[in-house]
């Protein structure tokens, strides 16, 4: 709706993105500030529902870092209290809560998660997360893992497969299809008899016409071939320049700038290449998402066109008369429509082959898809289980040694995060959360340092983490600083929105946020 | 060494001023309170709109229309009854928020939307020697910058590109972009047709006297006949006349417009049916409410706000919304609607329809109702997540600034910089997370710019025609609008030309009013001519500089190049009129030239664009952390754009 509650965000991700968000069912595990801030942003955006899982009651210290709790909530169920405040934010969102330990649900009732689109796991130990990962992975549920401790926050997405139609690449290079001009375009081009035009009309010939006429001339002299290497391109430019009458014809300048358009078709984006490779390994069937059928249409089109993508139908601004421009616009739009028709035909064939309804994908959907297809992307996240052993090991080994001093390197933080994970798994709590705060923090310091040294030893790395850094980590402890939770939660909700709307490219690796340095690192 | 204060202690002992309680402001206030800040004052002029609710989470539907500052305070107090928050529902440019007021704070945090107010706060902070944290967001992009007098650049050290103004003749006769058609509809045609003052002159009236009646309703004329008459005039007659001016189209590059078919040809069911659609327009003497509230699109069954209309549908919406606006103004007692308002659904429909028809005239890409609204209302994309990131970053930066300030002695004042010590402050940019870019990009702040008009010692040169530029225009357009002054005082070498003060006597008031109407050349004491140096100051901002006037006669100006009819030059203002900002200008256009909302502003674009922009924006910065695996290029340079 224009002017409504979601007006400002629809301007980013469109009505179709908003619709997907409004169908999303979110589950939050543990109602600490990071998780609450994440869900807060999603509720504001207009998800379908949220379910909060937390076993704790509200303690006075929760009020110090969690805005979704008020003084009157102390002693209440934390999940219940947070749910009530979250519901206040947006009446359209359904909310519920469960007073149970999230870890118990993961072990005892994994089917519980099947109802959700998104599971947000916060402040959980690695071994539980790995179990949850395999549950979500089977259902292709979006899982996001977040943890904040002290001045550091980490975020990791875990999804089996994710496809993006609209990656919002930002560049807007027009594919003009000039390597393979089609009859309507050729007819238009041949109407111009450059020699007969007066000076003014000559300057008003669209550059596309100049280029294609030059191509004809070149082909006639070069065995019907187009200029291929740089030397030939230079010669082609020379030939084009020779057609000029003066040196201030802007249409010729535009033609010279666009010579690459006639030499070879626009190369496919690396992300699309990856998508096509993935398609090749797939057997389209009843359960295959429709994205892959659309892509198979594109793939078949590419095979037939010799590597040329279906045209999008838009043309750049150019120096020419209005008549010419409007005619060219029409020619390109008609070509785009007929290309889309061809793609549609292939898509339908693929659907039928897979035993599905021919009209499962509408002509409109195919047309829209053709517009974005050149930047489509496919992502896959490795299982968390691999993260903690193999890959991390590999990463640490391949990173050069040293850099233990300030400014701290990614390696430093990686070791610190690994050590905290190991601490959590070993002692069932985060460093710095001992009941006896004074003695406990001294103990925790030694424990964490020992674990860090073990990790370093395991990977044959010299040196050790700065005592200061370990001290800070223990001091920050399980206490989530609100400023860190707020930033991390915001990043988390933003990544979720990218995933749900299937727009923009989400983070493929583990993201480490350092609030002191204002940096995000990925590894 | 004395033990360092913890962040919470630091927060507890500091007094902060927040300017703006919108998208960033709500997040900021929450995070401040939860980080231990106990002494917070906040200023905001705005009231709550329904489109704020997707991110300004301290507001509920029942708060629509109420003061943002007051509601934000009340909501936070409900959660944290012991927080000390003072809310001012007012304009930060108001004289009660003066330098002495600002001096009582340890840091000022801006979450503001408009450039004028941001410049004003910058000057207050410089004068009061209080550090300022600036911020802005648009869509997924955002930024936080620290400005500490003497230590880092002030907010105005790097010139801010201003939104491109469109030459009137382009808008009126030779549009070639969608934005031209939208601005024509909203800023020229709309007020010309619907303003309460029937004699209000507009830029559309520079034509033959016989045409002056074209935009005026004849006595007894029905709203829809009037609408059709305007349709035929604007989209047909006027276009035909333009085509007849051959010299105008001598340049072949200029695309010639095509007149549209007559209304009755395009819309076979005729104007009355089109205007009414499925519901009654005027009723039959029995004017029910729903006919007044219904929009043209609803009546015509055009439900998809994202679709581009056909010419016929655009013509229907034109006549229908037009007639509805006329009927509404009539029933309101003919107050008229002076200015386009993006929250007025009928006005939005009228503008979208006009722009669509005009695009058809000129063969320009056609925008949907949704897009036209965004462009005409200068609506900025805004989402909760980016504001939340930026709100958190502001607090973190504020703590750094406060720590430095406390280290400089509790007496206040800015910490004396230690030579060679690394600058503790950061500019942080929030970006889209693409495969090769980081989400957060911290940068070393720029040093102060010695030739900054505001914090340095620069002189500003104004090139204009002294025979036609009036003092009033100089004050309104140059000093207030372009240079962001609040209460300027203008001194010629021999006399005071203008000042604003409650204590003026009647003679002075009369003299200044007379001066404002006078051209520069005719001002008292010999007039202001080529090479006159004016001393300009603003006591509310503790800001003054020399303005050197350079005369360039009227016939030497090119409308296309300098639509304003004057040029400002100066080390730090020059970029405003500089061609180099073309990239920024375009970017602004896409978003509609001027931001309206609270979440706007200074933005660093993504890396690909950063590279392209180095040459133009010139704000080169060094990345200061070199430690991760994303070395995909784009290292180093950034541009700032303002979506304002
Ligand atoms: Zn400055």
List the helices and strands and how they pair.
The complex is a heterodimer of chains A (523) and B (644).
Chain A lengths: L6 H16 L2 E5 L3 H13 L3 E5 L24 H12 L4 E5 L3 H7 L9 E5 L3 H14 L2 E8 L2 E7 L3 E3 L18 H8 L8 H5 L3 H15 L8 H13 L7 H8 L2 H4 L6 H11 L9 H16 L16 H32 L9 H10 L4 E3 L4 H15 L11 H18 L9 H22 L8 H10 L5 H20 L9 E4 L4 E4 L1
Parallel strand pairs in A: 1-2, 1-4, 2-3, 4-5
Antiparallel strand pairs in A: 5-6, 6-9, 7-8, 9-10
Chain B lengths: L6 H6 L2 E5 L3 H12 L4 E6 L23 H12 L4 E6 L9 H5 L3 E4 L4 H14 L3 E7 L2 E7 L20 H5 L5 H17 L28 H22 L18 H4 L3 H7 L12 H5 L2 H5 L10 H21 L13 H18 L6 H8 L7 H24 L19 E4 L9 E4 L16 E5 L6 H12 L5 E4 L4 E3 L7 H12 L15 E6 L4 E9 L15 E3 L12 H9 L10 E4 L2 H11 L22 E4 L1
Parallel strand pairs in B: 1-2, 1-4, 2-3, 4-5, 9-13
Antiparallel strand pairs in B: 5-6, 6-7, 7-8, 9-14, 10-11, 10-12, 12-13, 15-16
Helix pairs in contact in B: 2-16, 7-14, 8-13, 10-13, 13-14, 14-15, 17-18
The site of zinc ion has 10 residues of chain B, from loops.
Sum this structure up briefly.
The complex is a heterodimer of chains A (523) and B (644). Chain A is 51% helix and 9% strand.
Under the CATH scheme, which class of the largest domain in chain B?
Answer: Alpha Beta
Mean pLDDT of chain B: 77
- How many β-strand runs of chain B? 16
Counting DSSP E segments of at least 2 residues, the number of strands of chain A comes to 10
Q: Which CATH architecture of the largest domain in chain A?
A: 3-Layer(aba) Sandwich
User: How much is the radius of gyration of chain A in Å?
Assistant: 29 Å
Largest sheet of chain B: 8 strands, mixed
Could you report the average pLDDT of chain A, rounded to the nearest whole number? 87
According to CATH, what is the topology of the largest domain in chain A?
A: Rossmann fold
The SS-based structural class of chain B is: alpha/beta
List the domain count of chain A as a whole number.
4
Rg of chain B is: 27 Å
Instruction: Return the CATH architecture of the largest domain in chain B.
Output: 3-Layer(aba) Sandwich
GO cellular component, one term (chain B): cytoplasm
Organism (chain B): Micromonas commoda (strain RCC299 / NOUM17 / CCMP2709)
Binding site for ATP (chain B): 20-25, 44, 52-55, 68, 113-118
Protein name (chain B): SUMO-activating enzyme subunit
């Amino acid at each position: 709706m224009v002017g409504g509650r979601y007006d400002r965000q629809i301007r980013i991700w469109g009505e179709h993105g908003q619709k997907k968000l409004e169908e999303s069912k979110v589950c939050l595990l543990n109602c600490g500030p990071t998780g609450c801030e994440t869900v807060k942003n999603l509720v504001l955006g207009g998800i379908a529902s949220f379910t909060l899982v937390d076993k704790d009651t509200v303690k006075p210290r929760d009020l110090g870092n969690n805005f979704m709790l008020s003084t009157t909530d102390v002693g209440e169920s934390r999940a219940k209290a947070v749910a009530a405040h979250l519901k206040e934010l947006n009446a359209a969102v359904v909310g519920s809560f469960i007073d149970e330990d999230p870890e118990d649900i993961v072990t005892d009732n994994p089917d519980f998660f099947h109802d959700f689109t998104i599971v947000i796991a916060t402040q959980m130990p690695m071994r539980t997360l790995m179990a949850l990962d395999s549950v979500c992975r089977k259902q292709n549920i979006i899982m996001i893992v977040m943890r904040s401790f002290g001045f550091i926050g980490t975020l990791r997405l875990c999804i089996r497969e994710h496809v993006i139609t609209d990656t919002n690449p930002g560049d807007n290079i027009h594919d003009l299809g000039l390597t393979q001009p089609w009859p309507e375009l050729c007819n238009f081009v041949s109407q111009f008899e450059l020699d007969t035009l007066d000076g003014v009309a000559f300057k008003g010939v669209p550059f596309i016409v100049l280029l294609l006429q030059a191509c004809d001339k070149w082909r006639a002299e070069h065995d019907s071939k187009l200029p291929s290497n740089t030397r030939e391109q230079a010669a082609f430019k020379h030939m084009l320049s020779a057609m000029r009458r003066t040196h201030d014809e802007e249409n010729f300048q535009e033609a010279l700038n666009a010579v690459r358009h006639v030499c070879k078709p626009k190369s496919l984006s690396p992300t699309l290449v990856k998508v096509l490779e993935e398609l090749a390994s797939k057997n389209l069937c009843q359960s295959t998402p429709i994205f892959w059928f659309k892509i198979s249409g594109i793939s078949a089109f590419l095979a037939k066109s010799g590597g040329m993508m279906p045209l999008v139908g838009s043309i750049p601004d150019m120096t020419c008369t209005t008549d010419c421009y409007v005619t060219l616009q029409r020619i390109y739009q008609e070509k785009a429509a007929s290309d889309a028709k061809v793609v549609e035909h292939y898509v339908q064939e693929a659907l039928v082959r897979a035993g599905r309804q021919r009209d499962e994908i509408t002509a409109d959907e195919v047309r829209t898809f053709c517009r974005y297809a050149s930047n489509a992307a496919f992502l896959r996240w490795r299982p968390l289980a691999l993260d903690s052993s193999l890959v991390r090991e590999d990463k640490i080994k391949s990173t050069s040694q040293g850099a233990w001093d300030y400014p701290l390197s990614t390696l430093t933080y990686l070791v610190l995060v690994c050590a905290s994970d190991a601490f959590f798994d070993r002692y069932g709590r985060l460093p710095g959360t001992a009941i006896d705060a004074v003695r406990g923090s001294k103990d925790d310091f030694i424990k964490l340092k020992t674990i860090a040294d073990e990790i370093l030893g395991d990977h044959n790395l010299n040196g050790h983490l700065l005592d200061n850094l370990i001290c800070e980590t223990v001091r920050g402890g399980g206490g989530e600083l609100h400023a860190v939770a707020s930033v991390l939660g915001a990043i988390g909700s933003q990544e979720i929105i990218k995933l749900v709307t299937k727009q923009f490219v989400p983070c493929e690796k583990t993201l480490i946020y350092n609030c002191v340095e204002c940096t995000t690192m990925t590894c | 060494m004395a033990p360092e204060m913890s962040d919470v202690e630091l927060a507890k002992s500091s007094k902060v001023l927040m300017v703006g309680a919108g998208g960033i402001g709500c997040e900021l206030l929450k995070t401040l309170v939860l980080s231990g800040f106990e002494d917070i004052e906040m200023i905001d002029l705005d009231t709550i709109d329904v489109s704020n609710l997707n991110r300004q989470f301290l507001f509920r539907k029942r708060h629509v229309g109420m003061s943002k500052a007051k509601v934000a305070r009340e909501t936070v107090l409900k959660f944290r009854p012991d927080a000390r928050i003072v809310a001012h529902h007012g304009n930060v440019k108001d004289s009660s928020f003066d330098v002495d007021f600002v001096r009582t704070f340890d840091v000022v945090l801006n979450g503001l939307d408009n450039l004028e107010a941001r410049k004003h706060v910058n000057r207050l902070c410089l004068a009061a020697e209080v550090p300022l944290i600036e911020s802005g967001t648009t869509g997924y992009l955002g930024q936080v910058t620290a400005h500490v007098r003497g230590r880092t650049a002030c907010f105005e050290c790097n010139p801010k590109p201003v939104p491109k103004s469109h030459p009137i003749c382009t808008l009126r006769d030779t549009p070639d972009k969608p934005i031209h058609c939208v601005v024509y509809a909203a800023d020229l045609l709309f007020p010309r047709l619907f303003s309460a003052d029937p004699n209000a002159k507009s830029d559309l009236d520079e034509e033959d006297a016989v045409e002056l009646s074209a935009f005026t309703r004849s006595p007894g004329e029905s709203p829809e006949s009037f609408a059709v008459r305007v349709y035929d005039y604007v989209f047909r007659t006027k276009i035909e006349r333009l085509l007849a001016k051959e010299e105008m189209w001598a340049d072949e590059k200029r695309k010639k417009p095509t007149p549209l078919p007559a209304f009755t040809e395009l819309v076979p069911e005729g104007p009355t049916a089109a205007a009414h659609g499925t519901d009654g327009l005027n009723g039959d003497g029995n004017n029910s409410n729903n006919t007044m509230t219904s929009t043209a699109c609803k009546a015509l069954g055009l439900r998809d706000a994202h679709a581009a209309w056909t010419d016929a549908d655009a013509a229907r919406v034109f006549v229908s919304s037009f007639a509805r606006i006329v009927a509404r103004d009539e029933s309101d007692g003919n107050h008229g609607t002076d200015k386009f308002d993006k929250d007025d659904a009928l006005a939005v429909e009228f503008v979208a329809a006009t722009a669509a028809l005009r695009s058809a005239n000129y063969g320009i890409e056609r925008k949907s109702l949704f897009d036209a609204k965004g462009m005409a209302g200068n609506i900025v994309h805004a989402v909760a997540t980016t504001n939340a990131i930026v709100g958190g970053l502001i607090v973190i930066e504020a703590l750094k600034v406060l720590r430095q300030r406390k280290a400089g002695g509790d007496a206040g004042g800015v910490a004396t910089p230690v030579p060679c010590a690394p600058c503790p402050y950061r500019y942080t940019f929030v970006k889209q997370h693409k495969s090769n870019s980081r989400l957060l990009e911290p940068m070393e702040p720029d040093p102060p710019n010695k030739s900054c008009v505001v914090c340095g010692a620069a002189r500003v040169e104004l090139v204009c025609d002294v025979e036609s530029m009036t003092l009033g225009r100089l004050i309104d357009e140059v000093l207030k609008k372009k240079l962001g002054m609040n209460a300027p005082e203008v001194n010629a070498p021999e006399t005071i030309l203008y000042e604003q003060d409650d204590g003026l006597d009647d003679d002075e008031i009369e003299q200044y009013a007379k001066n404002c109407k006078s051209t520069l050349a005719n001002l008292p004491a010999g007039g202001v001519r080529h090479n006159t140096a004016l001393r300009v100051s603003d006591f509310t901002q503790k800001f003054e500089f020399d303005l050197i006037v350079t005369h360039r006669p009227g016939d030497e100006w090119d409308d296309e190049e300098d639509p304003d009819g004057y040029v400002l030059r100066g080390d730090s203002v020059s970029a405003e009129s500089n061609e180099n900002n073309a990239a920024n200008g375009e970017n602004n256009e896409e978003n509609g030239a001027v931001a309206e909302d609270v979440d706007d502003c200074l933005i660093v674009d993504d890396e690909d664009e950063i590279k392209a922009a180095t040459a133009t924006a010139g704000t080169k910065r060094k990345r200061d952390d070199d430690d991760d695996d994303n070395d995909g290029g784009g290292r180093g340079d950034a541009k700032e754009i303002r979506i304002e």
